[in-house]
Amino acid sequence: MSTFRIKLSLFLNYFVFAILLNSVGTVILQVQNNFDVSKSSASVLEAFKDMSIAFTSFLIASYVNKIGYKRTMLIALALVAVMCLSIPSLPTFYMTKMLFAAAGIGFALIKVSVFATIGLVTKSKSEHLSFMNFLESFFMVGVLSGYFLFASMVDNSDPKSVTWFNTYYILGGLAAAAFVLLLTTKLDESSIKEAEKNKSATNDFTEMLQLVVLPLVLVFIFSAFFYVLIEQSIMSWLPTFNKDVLNISTSLSIQLASILSAFIGLGRLLAGIILRKVDWIYVLLGCLLCAGVVVLITMPMAANIAPGVKETLADVPVVAFAFPLIGLFLAPIYPAINSVILSNLPSHRHGAMSGLIVVFSALGGSTGSIITGNLSQAYGGETAFYLSLIPIAILIVLLIVFKRLQPKGGALVDIKTAGGH
């Protein structure tokens, strides 16, 4: 197995889906312009994406070991490549829903497989934790690239223009390139196949469900849910917040939203270094407290924005640059808790655990986006973002409990001792 090529393939797979999935914030803004849909109606795009992720993960994750990690990733890449290359010819609100449904299905397959594959290409818990952060930071590089890619296709002079859909031709090409790279790369899955040899697919599915009865896993699931709820509610609605609350032009609103992704990417890159030396709980709690401070400082600033559309960076209010700083502090949380839970399970359980991670992350993302969309429509964007302080406080409590439940010896009780077969 070529470890370098496999790691490169994982990075490229994540890069493609980072752009595709996180275009939802841009698309939410654009469909309001193109198809005259309300904020609450536009928010369902997040649900099409996340519910597809959750549904697919719940049904398929336990079968990934039998299908094979490489084969599963190839199926996902082929699906999104076809969909991306088709949608520019069918630019409708209905097709954007179908696009994100397909993207959700593909990402569920990719993420479960990628998370499980990390266990095959890393040799220690510290390497696992570090690689997870670097991979997630590269995901944010994809998100950042996507904002500029889509912004370059937006026509500010014609709100009804659908030329921005051509961006998906580029994404289709990237998915095809990722498919070819993975297809031509060897991945040794023999250790997983050996562990699965005498197990049925029904047993795999049952074991995934039985993981939930472990207290550490249960607290982790709630932690992942609330983290993604916070991140996606901000990320999906930041372009709309920039346009409607801060009075910034459409293309510039999209570009400025990329600052959040840049900070998240930087935060995960730094965390990959810091977490090698500092206990993860101290890092994450400090980050959440700082995130709360950012909200408290910046939202009052957003309430006093001068009228008139801001067309250039010189006209943009300071809050548009300051609020995305929250991404720097939210950044380390998700990959760190994922690594902690996975590194405390034997490698043949990683597929099932990854399925649970993806399911509850998707539920959190969809819930956060829909709540924020409806709050924005009813009370304004600054109030909606203010209320992110509530899940931040809940997450602080959950992480403290999560740390206390972590096994001292670093090995989670096997599923069989928790009432399994």
Automatic annotation (TrEMBL):
Gene3D superfamilies: MFS general substrate transporter like domains. InterPro entries: MFS, MFS_dom, MFS_trans_sf, MFS_Transporter. GO terms for molecular function: transmembrane transporter activity. It is a multi-pass membrane protein. The chain crosses the membrane at residues 12-31, 51-67, 74-94, 100-122, 134-154, 166-187, 208-230, 250-270, 282-306, 318-341, 353-371, 383-402. It is found in: Endomembrane system. Keywords: Membrane, Transmembrane, Transmembrane helix, Transport. Residues 2-406 form the Major facilitator superfamily (MFS) profile domain. Its main location: membrane. It comes from the Bacteria. GO terms for cellular component: endomembrane system; membrane. Belongs to the major facilitator superfamily. This is MFS transporter. It comes from Lacibacter luteus.
